Amino acid sequence: MPAAIGQELVALLPRLRRFALVLCRSQPLADDLVQGACERALANAGSWTPGTKFDAWMFRILRNHWIDHLRRMKAEGMTEDVSLQTQLIGDPGEGPILSRLVLSQVQRAIDSLPQEQREVLVLVCAEDLSYREAAEVLGVPIGTVMSRLARARRRLMEMTAAA
Predict the structure, then answer these.
(1) CA pair distance 59, 7, nearest whole angstrom
(2) Which of 40, 66, 77, 156 makes the best surface tag, with the fewest CB within 10 Å?
């Protein structure tokens, strides 16, 4: 009889895992629950009545295993390190805030550049035009593009480094 249960278990694994994910919402814990439920089913193979719905029997074992897990967690207290949980919803931290502050600082610095330096900076750095293409767009010699760009970059570095 355990061989027949083993084959049934293998066929049912994807559904058991899906149900476990619905219960606990954690992939590692869902895998542990499925494994535990399979162990219980194999250890108690004699309690399954052939001809009855095997999947309903297994889902009941899995759910009971989940309830036992919850009771154990309540009695023991939290054992998982919350800081390691990547799926928790919450404040993303200071990283995005600092990035936005730096971006707004750079935007203010670019806005404060003289018009001709802003134009060259945007054409070469943001629009990825070559010096020659930027010179053609602006109707100035290539050397002028290079000198305006150098002045714009130097000014941006000074303004953003000081803050």
Answers:
(1) 16
(2) 77
Tell me: the pLDDT tens digits for 67-110? 999 998 888 775 555 555 555 555 566 777 777 888 888 888 88
Residue type, 102: V
CB 136 within 8 A of CB 86: no
Q: Would you give the DSSP letter of residue 124?
A: I
Asked if 47 and 10 count as a contact pair (C-beta separation under 8 A), the reply is: no
**Residues 84-105 as b or e (16 or more Cβ within 10 Å = b):** eeeeeeeeeeeeeeeeeeeeee
The residue type of 137 is V
SS3 44: coil
H or E element in which residue 53 lies = none
